[in-house]
Design brief:
0% strand, 5 helices, globular, mainly alpha
C-alpha cells in the first residue's frame, strides 16, 4: 500500500510518494542551457559590472523568503538562517558595489577589501565617497553604521548563519543569540534597503556621467584619428 505523506504546513497538500521520485541517472547534469523554452534558459552574468545584479538578487531572494515566512510560520525556525544570511550578503555586496562604482566615477582602479566585515567595507565606502566631487552620503548614516556594527557583532565573517559551528578546534556554536524577532528584523532591514538603494541610485548617476564622458572622449579620439589619415 502506498502512503501519501502530508505536510501540515501545506494544509493537507499531499507530497509525492516514494514511487514518484526519480532516481539519478547516468549523464544527469545540474548546469545546462538546453531547455526548448528559451525563457527558462536564464542568462548568467558576473564580473565587475554585475555587483548591482548580485546585491539586488540577494535582496529579492530575502524578501521572497520572508513572504513565505509570513504565510507559513511553520518554517520560521528553519528558514530564518538563509533569510538572515541573504540579507547580510545583500549588505556586503551593496557596499562593494558602491565602492567600485565611486572608484569608477573618479577614474580610479577597482579595489576593495576581500573582508566580509560590514564596518570595514563601510569605512572603504566613506573613503571612496570622498573621491567624487558633489557626492555625499545621505543623512542618517550614523544609524546605518550602528546597525552594521550590530550585524558584525552577531555575524562578523558572514559565517554564523551558514554553519552551526565556528572554525575553532573546539567547533563552538556559531551563534551566541538564542532567539530573534523576525518581524522586527525585517522592518529594520527595509529601512536599510531604502538607505542603500538610495545610495546605489546616486552612485549610478555618477557612473553614467563617467561613461558619457569616456564615450565622448573615445569619439573625439576616433575623429582625430580619421582626420589624421585623410589625404586632404
Amino acid at each position: 500500500m502506498d502512503y501519501e505523506f502530508t505536510d501540515a504546513a501545506y494544509e493537507g497538500t499531499p507530497l509525492k510518494s516514494m514511487d514518484e521520485l526519480k532516481a539519478l541517472e547516468n549523464g544527469d547534469k545540474l548546469f545546462t542551457n538546453s531547455n526548448p523554452d528559451f525563457r527558462k534558459n536564464i542568462p548568467i552574468k558576473s564580473g565587475k559590472d554585475a555587483f548591482f545584479l548580485f546585491s539586488d538578487s540577494y535582496k529579492t531572494a530575502a524578501e521572497g523568503v520572508f513572504d513565505r515566512l509570513n504565510v507559513d510560520r511553520y518554517y520560521a525556525s528553519t528558514l530564518c538562517y538563509p533569510y538572515i544570511f541573504l540579507n547580510r550578503q545583500f549588505l556586503e555586496l551593496r557596499l562593494k558595489e558602491l565602492i567600485v562604482g565611486l572608484q569608477f566615477a573618479a577614474g580610479e582602479e577597482y579595489d576593495f577589501p576581500n573582508s566580509h566585515g560590514l564596518t570595514v567595507l563601510w569605512s572603504e565606502f566613506e573613503k571612496a565617497s570622498k573621491l567624487v566631487t558633489d557626492y555625499s552620503i545621505e543623512n542618517g548614516f550614523e544609524d546605518v553604521i550602528r546597525l552594521l556594527k550590530e550585524f558584525d557583532s552577531v555575524d562578523p565573517k558572514s559565517y554564523s548563519f551558514r554553519y552551526p559551528v565556528d572554525t575553532s578546534k573546539e567547533r563552538k556554536p556559531s551563534l551566541s543569540i538564542g532567539s530573534i524577532d523576525l518581524d522586527h528584523f525585517n522592518s529594520t532591514m527595509k529601512k536599510l534597503y531604502h538607505f542603500f538603494d538610495t545610495e546605489s541610485y546616486h552612485v549610478s548617476y555618477f557612473v553614467e556621467m563617467r561613461e558619457e564622458y569616456m564615450s565622448e572622449m573615445e569619439s573625439m579620439l576616433y575623429q582625430d584619428l580619421v582626420a589624421s589619415y585623410r589625404p586632404y
